[in-house]
């Protein structure tokens, strides 16, 4: 067997040097005080590129515009309002303590660090908890219609296994309402002339000059025009990369390209293997499926999860399976938490049941990549509301979950009031991303990264209702107060179109596009993407093994080689060409996928949702190794197919005691 | 299933378009309409033909990016009585062997970019004309300092669920964008935070709506009938009331 050093090498440790000294509750105010200011007259002379218009990007672009900077904002969709933040259902946490249940900044901080399995940076998480209350104020002032009580005050609920009610929500459409709030603020700045909006533009390269990020190269997706844009600073707010798995709950256009181009130019990629798997999605129905749909986790409050005890019963109508022939496996294995075990445990056990051959629903063909053989496997478990309907009545269940039941019926054509729903885990959110310091600056000077695109404050296992909080915290409050410190030294020397760095960036984009268009092979872009996704899900999904990851790396390398010699991209660059767009993104996923496997390979511990088979307790639970892996893994690019360099940022827990998790 | 499609193909805004016939085999009734188009596009690509361009993104019915006219109906008609987005329309709503017409949104204010893709940036410019509350980040008062009565807040929410897909415009014989505009006006007018700019907002947004080339509203109601988020028609009455009142307010 090959050793890990065949796949990567270890470089010097790194540190975040921006978080000031002193007690944790003073750090953010100290940093804001110490950061240099830019006077309002000078802000007009400075420009900032923001890529992405979701919660992090839209909020940042609007806020920088309000401050008086010249903002150039880019998105690949037809309108900034389409950013994928819009699809978040659940809610947003904030330590408001409106319920008088002893919630506090400290408690939100504690819950978030613990929920991240002690793999997030304390200083950042504390700040996130600290500004959370301001986010709610800001959104309410914008007119975000959060749920209210009859007295006119805001309602709250609890979410994701915490013991206080701190989640603010807008039915099942919290992300939509928060995003529309940010979008409206953004359009206000567009009207005011501080923000210039470029829709249907995709960032394809980062421009570095004298060690500073100074601009980007974009492709106009309508005309194919490839243009360089320069500014004093660049902010990437481009979301997550869950689409490396092909099937995920992400929007189809979500991609890693902007972040990956920056990585190739030297930005470190932090914790790439950290993927959140969500247990309650509608299962895959066939090979042509393009997308998975999440069902709110709230269903687990009343639904009971089971599979047949005997594999022979899997094809039967579930209503005909006798009570004693059903295995309510979560209630059996985890009597204390039952169906409400954390996301990672619910997910992994569902996979185990299906691997044992006790899954339900339509059988799906799965390729064994090692042997090339296909096997047929049912990938679903029942989420049964029969006993809830008996206990509460159908009306009460309908009132609580009616919209989710309708959505399920719409997608599957089955009536969940009569037969149990089928669910299965799916890729939902990526906690890895470009490494940033306390100021949200990457290791490249002048390149800032916000929201899901950075390696984030969530560690290994994000809790519910945290992602929206981070996106808006970064966009409205953190970045606009840290980027000043950098911009105080600007404006930097203007760059002409003939500057060598600009010419080089444009040329590399054009060459890449030309190459993709000239291969003219026989396989479609999607066929490569699906195959990559299968490999990633099988070997770098919920459960990983040393051997499986090494195999996956080899297979991805072969697939990447085949892609560059046999992909078929139709049409021309000077056209609206969706095949070309997808080809460029899949090419980057083929490089990212390898790095994710390398990161997963080196982390020989189970943490968060990532179960490393070699690292488990005697009774089969995830086992962390704090003595060896209490660090952020930040990877340096050394060329496609070359061994990347691992830089470790040690994590220090001064305020929170490390504990092993237990749900039994 | 086998599906026969007649699809609007138009290389770009400058060229003329035409309907082209395709036959799609091995369609499963569990596929969404867009997955059926994916299947056709894979086939076209392998043959070296240009795939059909269409807009889509979240495929969960919330981003508002997808949208085509299917057999004359915006987003198509599903088997369920509730209107839906194109991405949430499934092939089980069609018969095996059916012939289906697929066209882009047709409206003067939404020019075709290519095939089934249209330009909806006019909607963004309507929002720019006043579809917001002017508040800078960091200057917001404590959220509980302004209570909002639940009935109005709920009505605001119903209007706020608009996803900006443009089906209302495509369905309207006048090509009016009034339901979209009215949804935003109602959302913000029902909340205490929206009051200071309430009447200037309705004036500037309606003026921009007209300038973009959307037609006028003649109370036909097709917009609300196809709306995947069921934005109520009475938001347009709200718009009209506020517009009338704005004549007397400065």
From TrEMBL, chain A:
Keyword rRNA-binding found: no
Going by the UniProt record, its keywords in alphabetical order are: Cell membrane, Electron transport, FAD, Flavoprotein, Membrane, Oxidoreductase, Transport
- Transmembrane annotation, as ranges: none
Please give the catalytic activity noted in the UniProt record: a quinone + succinate = fumarate + a quinol
Q: Does the keyword Membrane apply?
A: yes
Intracellular or extracellular location(s): Cell membrane
Q: Which InterPro entries match?
A: FAD-dep_OxRdtase_2_FAD-bd (IPR003953), FAD/NAD-bd_sf (IPR036188), Fum_R/Succ_DH_flav-like_C_sf (IPR037099), Fum_Rdtase/Succ_DH_flav-like_C (IPR015939), SdhA/FrdA/AprA (IPR030664), Succ_DH/Fum_Rdt_flav_su (IPR011280), Succ_DH/fumarate_Rdtase_cat_sf (IPR027477)
Entry EC number(s): 1.3.5.1
Q: Which GO terms describe its biological process?
A: anaerobic respiration
Determine the domain of life of the protein's source.
Answer: Bacteria
- Where is the catalytic site? 343
Gene Ontology MF, one? succinate dehydrogenase (quinone) activity
**Which cofactor is essential here?**
FAD
Enzyme group, top EC level? oxidoreductase
Query: Where in this chain does the record put each Fumarate reductase/succinate dehydrogenase flavoprotein-like C-terminal domain?
Result: 529-663
Among Gene3D superfamilies, the record links this protein to: FAD/NAD(P)-binding domain (3.50.50.60), Fumarate reductase/succinate dehydrogenase flavoprotein-like, C-terminal domain (1.20.58.100), Succinate dehydrogenase/fumarate reductase flavoprotein, catalytic domain (3.90.700.10)
Provide the membrane topology annotation. Peripheral membrane protein
Q: Which residues form the FAD-dependent oxidoreductase 2 FAD-binding domain?
A: 48-468
Q: Which GO terms describe its cellular component?
A: plasma membrane
Q: Can you tell me which family this protein belongs to? A: Belongs to the FAD-dependent oxidoreductase 2 family. FRD/SDH subfamily.
**Protein's recorded name:** succinate dehydrogenase
The protein's organism comes out as Propioniciclava coleopterorum
UniProtKB/TrEMBL annotation, chain B:
The record describes how the cofactor is bound as: Binds 1 [4Fe-4S] cluster.
Keyword list, A-Z = 2Fe-2S, 3Fe-4S, 4Fe-4S, Iron, Iron-sulfur, Metal-binding, Oxidoreductase, Tricarboxylic acid cycle
Q: Which reaction does it catalyse?
A: a menaquinone + succinate = a menaquinol + fumarate
- InterPro entries, alphabetically? 2Fe-2S_ferredoxin-like_sf, 2Fe-2S_ferredoxin-type, 2Fe2S_fd_BS, 4Fe4S_Fe-S-bd, 4Fe4S_Fe_S_CS, Beta-grasp_dom_sf, Helical_ferredxn, SDH/FRD_Iron-Sulfur
UniProt key word Flavoprotein: no
- What are the 4Fe-4S ferredoxin-type domain coordinates in residue numbering? 153-182
Coiled-coil segments: none
Ranges for domain 2Fe-2S ferredoxin-type come to 18-106
GO MF terms here are: 2 iron, 2 sulfur cluster binding; 3 iron, 4 sulfur cluster binding; 4 iron, 4 sulfur cluster binding; electron transfer activity; metal ion binding; succinate dehydrogenase (quinone) activity
Has UniProt tagged this entry with the keyword Oxidoreductase? yes
Q: Report the superkingdom from the record.
A: Bacteria
Q: Give the GO biological process terms.
A: respiratory electron transport chain; tricarboxylic acid cycle
Known EC number: 1.3.5.1
Which co-factor is required? [4Fe-4S] cluster; [2Fe-2S] cluster; [3Fe-4S] cluster
By its UniProt entry, which PANTHER family does this protein fall under? SUCCINATE DEHYDROGENASE, SUCCINATE DEHYDROGENASE IRON-SULFUR PROTEIN
Instruction: Give the family this protein belongs to, as stated in its UniProt record.
Output: Belongs to the succinate dehydrogenase/fumarate reductase iron-sulfur protein family.
Q: What is this protein called?
A: Fumarate reductase iron-sulfur subunit
- Organism (species): Propioniciclava coleopterorum
């Amino acid at each position: 067997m090959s050793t890990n050093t065949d796949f990567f090498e270890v470089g010097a440790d790194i540190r975040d040097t921006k978080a000031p000294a002193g007690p944790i509750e003073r750090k953010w105010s100290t940093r804001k005080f110490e950061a240099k200011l830019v006077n309002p007259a000078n802000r007009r002379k400075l420009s900032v590129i923001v890529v992405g218009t979701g919660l992090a990007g839209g909020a940042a672009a609007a806020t920088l515009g309000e401050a008086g900077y010249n903002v150039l904002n880019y998105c690949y969709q037809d309108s900034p309002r389409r950013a994928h933040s819009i699809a978040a259902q659940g809610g947003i946490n904030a330590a408001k303590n409106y319920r008088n249940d002893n919630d506090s900044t400290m408690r939100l901080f504690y819950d978030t660090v613990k929920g991240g399995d002690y793999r997030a940076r304390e200083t950042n998480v504390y700040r996130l908890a600290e500004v959370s209350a301001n986010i709610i104020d800001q959104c309410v002032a914008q007119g975000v219609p959060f749920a209210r009580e009859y007295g006119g005050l805001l309602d709250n609920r609890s979410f994701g296994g915490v013991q206080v009610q701190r989640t603010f929500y807008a039915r099942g459409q919290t992300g939509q309402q928060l995003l529309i709030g940010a979008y409206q603020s953004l359009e206000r700045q567009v009207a005011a002339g501080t923000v210039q909006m470029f829709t249907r533009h995709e960032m394809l390269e980062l421009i570095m000059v004298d060690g500073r990020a100074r601009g980007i190269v974009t492709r106009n997706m309508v005309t194919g025009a490839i243009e360089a844009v320069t500014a004093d600073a660049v902010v990437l707010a481009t979301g997550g990369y869950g689409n490396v798995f092909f099937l995920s709950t992400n929007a189809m256009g979500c991609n890693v390209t902007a972040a990956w181009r920056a990585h190739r130019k030297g930005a470190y990629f932090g914790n790439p293997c950290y993927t959140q798997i969500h247990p309650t999605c509608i299962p895959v129905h066939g090979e042509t499926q393009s997308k998975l749909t999440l069902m709110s986790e709230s269903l687990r409050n009343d639904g009971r999860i089971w599979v047949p005890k005997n594999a022979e019963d899997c094809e039967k109508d579930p209503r005909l399976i006798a009570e004693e022939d059903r295995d309510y496996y979560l209630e059996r294995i985890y009597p204390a938490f039952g169906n409400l075990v954390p996301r990672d445990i619910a997910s992994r056990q569902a996979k185990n049941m299906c691997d044992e051959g006790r899954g339900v629903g339509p059988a799906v063909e799965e390729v064994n990549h090692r042997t090339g053989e296909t096997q047929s496997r049912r990938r679903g478990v029942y989420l049964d509301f029969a006993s809830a309907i008996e206990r509460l009545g159908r009306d009460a269940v309908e009132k609580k979950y009616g919209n989710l039941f309708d959505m399920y019926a719409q997608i599957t054509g089955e009536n969940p009031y009569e037969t149990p729903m089928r669910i299965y885990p799916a890729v939902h959110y990526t906690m890895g991303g470009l490494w940033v310091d306390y100021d949200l600056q990457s290791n490249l000077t002048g390149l800032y990264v916000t929201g899901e695109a950075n390696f984030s404050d969530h560690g290994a296992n994000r809790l519910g209702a945290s992602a929206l909080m981070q996106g808006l915290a970064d966009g409205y409050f953190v970045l606009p107060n840290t980027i000043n410190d950098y911009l105080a030294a600007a404006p930097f020397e203007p760059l002409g179109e003939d500057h060598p760095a600009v010419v080089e960036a444009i040329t590399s984009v054009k060459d890449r596009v030309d190459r993709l268009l000239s291969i003219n092979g026989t396989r479609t872009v999607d066929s490569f993407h699906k195959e990559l996704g299968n490999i990633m899900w099988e070997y770098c999904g919920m459960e990983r093994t040393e051997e499986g990851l090494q195999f996956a790396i080899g297979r991805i390398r072969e697939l990447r080689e085949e892609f560059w010699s046999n992909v078929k991209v139709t049409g021309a660059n000077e056209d609206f060409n969706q095949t070309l767009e997808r080809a460029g993104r899949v090419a980057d996923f083929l490089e990212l996928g390898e790095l994710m496997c390398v990161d997963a390979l080196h982390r020989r511990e189970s943490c968060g949702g990532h179960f490393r088979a070699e690292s488990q307790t005697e009774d089969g639970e995830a086992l962390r190794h704090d003595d060896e892996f209490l660090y952020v893994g930040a990877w340096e690019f050394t060329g496609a197919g070359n061994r990347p360099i691992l830089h470790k940022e040690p994590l220090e827990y001064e305020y929170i005691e490390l504990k092993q998790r237990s749900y039994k | 299933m086998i599906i026969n499609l007649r699809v609007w193909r138009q290389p770009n805004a400058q060229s003329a378009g035409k309907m082209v016939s395709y036959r799609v085999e091995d369609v499963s009734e569990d596929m969404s309409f867009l997955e059926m188009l994916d299947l056709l596009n894979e086939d076209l690509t392998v043959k070296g033909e240009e795939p059909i361009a269409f807009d889509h993104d979240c495929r969960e019915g919330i981003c508002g990016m997808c949208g085509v006219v299917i057999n004359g109906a915006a987003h198509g008609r599903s088997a369920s009585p509730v209107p839906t987005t194109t991405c949430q329309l499934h092939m089980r709503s069609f018969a095996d062997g059916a012939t289906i017409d697929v066209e882009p949104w047709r409206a003067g204010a939404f020019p075709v970019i290519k095939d089934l893709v249209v330009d909806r940036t006019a909607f963004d410019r309507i929002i720019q004309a006043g579809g917001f509350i002017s508040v800078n980040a960091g200057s917001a008062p404590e959220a509980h300092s302004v209570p909002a009565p639940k009935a109005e807040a709920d009505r605001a929410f119903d209007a706020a669920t608009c996803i900006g897909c443009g089906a209302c415009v495509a369905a309207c014989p006048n090509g009016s964008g009034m339901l979209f505009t009215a949804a935003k006006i109602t959302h913000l007018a029902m909340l205490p935070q929206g009051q200071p700019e309430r009447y200037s907002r309705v004036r500037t947004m309606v003026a921009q709506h007209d300038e973009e080339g959307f037609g006028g509203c003649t109370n036909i109601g097709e917009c609300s009938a196809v709306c995947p988020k069921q934005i109520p028609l009475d938001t347009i009455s709200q718009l009209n009331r506020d517009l009338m009142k704005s004549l007397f307010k400065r």
